[in-house]
Amino acid sequence: MEILCVMRTIVQGYFGPQPGDIVEYLGCSKEQRNWGNNDWPYMCIVGGKYMVEEIEVHSSHTKLRLRGIVGRFNSVCFQKR
Q1: What's the pLDDT at 74?
Q2: Per residue in 10-19, pLDDT tens?
Q3: CA separation for the pair 10, 4 (Å, rounded)
Q4: Spatial separation of the C-alpha atoms in residues 66 and 20, rounded to whole Å
């Protein structure tokens, strides 16, 4: 996430995966899962590719919902392809 300062006002922008993007699962630690009460992506395979259905941007993390998979997962466990 980039942070811009415009006339002493901090403006934050989200530049991560968007709905329709393909992401690769990188694996997920217990701490990454627990941050923000995310779901455990036990059904995802490391290196597997998934389509982002929805994003939920919070102040310090982003949750992804993947097409065909139930749950909301920490975006740091995935990499945009």
Answers
A1: 95
A2: 555 667 899 9
A3: 6
A4: 9
pLDDT tens per residue, range 20-55 = 999 999 999 999 998 889 999 999 999 999 999 999
Calpha distance 6→2 (Å, rounded): 13
Judge contact between 53 and 19, C-beta under 8 A: yes
48: its two tokens? 């597997």
Q: What is the number of other CB atoms lying within 10 angstroms of the CB of residue 80?
A: 13
The three-state secondary structure class of 72 is: coil
Which three-class secondary structure state does DSSP give residue 75? Answer: helix
Q: CB 20: neighbour CB atoms within 10 A?
A: 9
CB 52 within 8 A of CB 65: yes
Phi and psi angles of residue 25, each rounded to the nearest 5 degrees, phi first? -80, 125
